[in-house]
Design goal:
It is built from six helices and eleven strands. The protein is α+β, with helices and mostly antiparallel strands. The protein folds into two domains: 177 residues, no CATH class; 46 residues. The strands form four sheets. Strands 2, 3, 6 and 7 form a four-stranded antiparallel β-sheet that branches. A hairpin with a 2-residue loop joins strand 4 and strand 5. The longest helix has 25 residues. The protein starts with a strand and ends with a helix.
């Protein structure tokens, strides 16, 4: 739970080399942005691109989880791991989730629970679907609103570049900045999210009396103030 940017890429490039070049151009742009860190590109084929083949502390496991598509067939849910993955991971700012970017090819069929093959129904070409929760970069202990804005706006700038490269399919920005390009509105939005989630966390803590609860919002230095405003239904 938290303010998040969701994004999808799609490209009909024919060769792996072309896809690798496109992802590399996106990564080079990421290196010019004020991200906390930008990882190396990885290029994987099965079984290496299946997160279930990785240890839980594997540094690429979250990227591989995000690269896995979920499909439903006859009331069953199946993981569809890539048959080729070219991607890189970034850490936009302290407090945010990692943000992963890349392109994948997926199989047209998977083995169902009964051993038969079922179609995945995934589009042809190179795909990527991912998201990054930026809200908790606004923790005052980590730099507050300034840190959050550096994080969120840098991600938007990278997605702008993905659009310029012709690979961007869709963006859903829960902060509203992708559509509005209004920094003040974004600051107000993250403040309202912080209050609402702090209020919810406070209520949950009351219900779990005597039990520990660790949530990102409770680590804010101004959590009690946010909680009071959230529970009162006030608007920042």
């Amino acid at each position: 739970m938290g303010l998040t940017i969701h994004y999808q890429f799609h490209s009909v490039l024919r060769t792996t080399g072309e896809a690798r070049g496109l992802v590399n151009r996106l990564r080079q742009h990421a290196l010019d942005l004020p991200f906390q860190s930008v990882g190396e590109m990885i290029d994987l084929s099965p079984p290496a691109c299946n997160y279930q083949q990785r240890e839980r502390d594997d540094p690429n496991r979250w990227l591989l989880i995000q690269a896995t598509q979920l499909i439903e067939r006859d009331q069953y849910t199946y993981d569809v791991a890539p048959k080729r993955l070219i991607a890189f991971s970034t850490q936009p700012a302290e407090g945010s989730e990692p943000a992963n970017f890349g392109l994948c090819l997926y199989p047209s069929t998977v083995v169902a629970h009964d051993g038969k093959k079922v179609g995945t129904g995934l589009p042809q070409g190179w795909l990527w679907t991912s998201f990054c929760k930026t809200q908790y970069a606004s923790n005052p202990k980590l730099g507050g609103v300034e840190n959050f804005l550096r994080c969120h706006l840098s991600l938007i700038r990278l997605l702008d570049h993905a659009r310029d490269l012709g690979m961007l399919k869709h963006v859903s920005d829960e902060g509203g900045y992708w559509e509005k390009r209004d920094v003040q509105a974004l600051v107000q939005e993250v403040g309202e999210w912080n209050e609402a989630i702090a209020g919810f966390a406070g209520q949950l803590k009351d219900q779990l009396t005597g039990q520990g609860m660790d949530a990102a919002i409770t680590r804010f230095s101004n959590f009690e103030h946010l909680e009071a405003k959230g529970r009162a239904g006030e608007v920042a």
